[in-house]
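thought: user wants a sequence for this fold. calling inverse folding tool.
action: design(structure=
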């Protein structure tokens, strides 16, 4: 029945050894495909690649076990709901890849091998193509700017004239004290008009803040997760 994409290989209520082996092999292969695609788009750690490879297999086995048994399915779902993840928050892209892996495992778990293959190939291809073409990429000139100033300076409007000269827009995101409260660190999100003038903007800020620390760079990756 493997030549029929929308027909399950599990034709009876019981799962045979052959069904289990076929579903397990398909889940691991599709998981490996997802892990390779994820690594091509962005640098992933070894642990992430292993996780993406094994997740479809684990989900498929769970689905095969609870197939047709609503009570057991609810119990398993309740057990998973008790898991508390303590890892650092990932980006929207990481969450997407995780959902692709889980969906592939679910489809394989109910026996639709070729449907899982078709879904995974289409989803991975779309993920890779959109990532590589830069659709929805970060706007040119968008920067996170961290400026340290002495505690005696009145910070709310101290750099307004500089930002008006060099940026299309600026927003004060965060203020925190540093150096035992003797200084402030201001965090801005700015869109620079001309990146060639970035050094001149920093030089003007240095003259204003007494040549204290200034950090200017792209927005951190965690901002994707925080926006969800």
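)
observation: tool returned 228 residues.
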């Amino acid at each position: 029945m493997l030549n029929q994409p929308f027909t399950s290989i599990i034709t009876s209520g019981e799962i045979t050894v052959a069904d289990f082996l076929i579903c397990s092999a398909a889940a691991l292969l599709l998981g490996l495909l997802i892990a390779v695609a994820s690594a091509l788009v962005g640098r992933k750690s070894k642990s992430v690649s292993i996780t993406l490879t094994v997740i479809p297999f684990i989900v498929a086995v769970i689905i095969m076990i609870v197939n047709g048994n609503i009570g057991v399915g609810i119990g398993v779902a309740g057990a998973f709901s008790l898991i508390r993840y303590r890892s650092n928050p990932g980006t929207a892209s990481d969450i997407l890849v995780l959902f692709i892996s889980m969906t592939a495992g679910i489809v394989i778990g109910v026996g639709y091998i070729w449907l899982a293959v078709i879904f995974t190939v289409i989803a991975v291809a779309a993920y890779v193509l959109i990532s590589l073409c830069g659709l929805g990429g970060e706007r040119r000139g968008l920067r996170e700017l961290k400026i340290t100033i002495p505690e005696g300076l009145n910070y709310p409007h101290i750099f307004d004239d500089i930002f008006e000269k060099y940026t299309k827009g600026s927003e004060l995101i965060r203020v925190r004290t540093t150096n035992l409260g003797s200084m402030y660190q201001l965090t801005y999100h700015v869109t620079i008009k001309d990146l060639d003038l970035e050094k001149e903007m920093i030089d003007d800020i240095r003259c204003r803040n007494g040549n204290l620390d200034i950090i200017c760079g792209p927005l951190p990756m965690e901002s994707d997760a925080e926006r969800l």
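thought: summarizing for user.
answer: Here is the designed sequence. Helices lie at 17-41, 46-66, 70-81, 92-109, 113-133, 160-166, 198-209, 222-227.
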